[in-house]
Amino acid sequence: MTWLITGGAGYIGAHVVRAFAAAGIATVVLDDLSSGHRSFISDDQDFVEGTLLDVPLLDRVFSEYRFAGVVHIAGYKYAGESVKKPIHTYEQNVTATTNLLAAAERAGVARIVFSSSAAVYGTPDTDLVTEATATRPESPYGETKLIGEWLLRDQGRATGLRHTSLRYFNVVGSASPDLRDTSPHNLFPLVFAALAEGRVPRINGTDYPTPDGTCVRDYVHVADIAEAHVRAAERLTGDEDIEPVYNLGSGDGVSVRQIMDGVARVTGTPFDPEISPRRPGDPARIVASGELAARDLDWRMRHSLDEMIGSAWEASRSGA
Fold first, then answer.
1. DSSP 62-129
2. What positions carry a catalytic annotation?
3. Is the pTM of this model over 0.85?
4. Which residues lie closer than 8 Å to 288 by C-beta, 6 or more apart?
5. Domain map of the chain by residue range?
6. 31 forms bridges with which residues in the sheet?
7. What is the CB-side half-sphere exposure of residue 259 using CA atoms within 13 A?
8. Does domain 173-217+250-318 have CATH number 3.90.25.10?
9. Where's the NAD-dependent epimerase/dehydratase domain (predicted)?
């Protein structure tokens, strides 16, 4: 049983690949290395460098391997930047997903786990998001993730594709010092880079309608996210009942200000954050219930905030 992992050389994807290996499930990684790293993939891991926009390449990969299913993580994942680059975002997230689903259908591969996002909710009108909460994305990124879910739904109706989409927001931490978040837009890498360079970390917006004025999010450890992907794939392979969507949420929100305080505490580097204007596309609060995923995917928060920060800080200093 082998699974194709798109985006498997990225921060989240590489953790998923290792979680699959720990579960004894073989994988093939497909990644264009636009944001991933070849060094995140072991030398003995089957790896194909390429883009999902390359249809002949997709057909070749599906013909060379016998896949039990696909975990689709590849994509352009920056909500704020997507406002500036909508066409690029749609191409990378919608056209690419359409190509992948078409190639999978041609090869008779009928299982997929989709890496979606809590960005599909926009700014919810409820304190705790569930899978039944209305989807109102506020960025091209969120829109493309919701369209990806629609594509899976419609393909499922048309062809019997078995699928599920995992919605999550801020993925942090590291399960290994050699795997770190290298995004130029995510909060932890930005904060750690500032500290390493002797600069003061920045908060984007302190005028949100939240208790301390900063954005409130679910912060979830990448290793917990990776395990949920494995459980979803196993459920699909075992032909067990599975929901079309799961929130991988903590049930508790953490503000950006609280993150800053935690970073100062864990790293032993006190600082007073610089305050900048809001970023476009950033909702004030998204906190999700993970009850449904706990029921079906053994989802739970296995790491504290300080453990998330500490493991991310260690990985950031490794120079991986």
1. HHHS-EEEEEE--S---HHHHHH-HHHHHIIIIIHHHHHHHHHHHHT--EEEEE--GGGG-S-SSSSB
2. 141
3. yes
4. 118, 128, 129, 130, 167, 168, 169, 218, 247, 248, 249, 250, 251
5. 2-171+219-247, 173-217+250-318
6. 49
7. 30
8. yes
9. 3-249
Per-residue pLDDT of the chain (320 residues; tens, 9 = 90+): 899 999 999 999 999 999 999 999 999 999 999 999 999 999 999 999 999 999 999 999 999 999 999 999 999 998 889 999 999 999 999 999 999 999 999 999 999 999 999 999 998 888 899 999 999 999 999 999 999 999 999 999 999 999 999 999 889 999 999 999 999 888 899 999 999 899 999 999 999 999 999 999 899 999 999 999 999 999 999 989 999 999 999 998 899 999 999 999 999 999 999 999 997 767 788 899 999 999 999 999 999 999 999 999 999 988 64
CATH of domain 2-171+219-247: 3.40.50.720
Amino acid at 319: G
> Among all chains, which residue has been given the structure tokens 């994988």?
27
Tell how strand 216-217 and strand 254-255 pair up: antiparallel
One-letter identity of residue 151: L
Reading the block at residue 59, the tokens are 């057909």
Residues 9 and 29 sit within 8 Å (Cβ to Cβ): yes
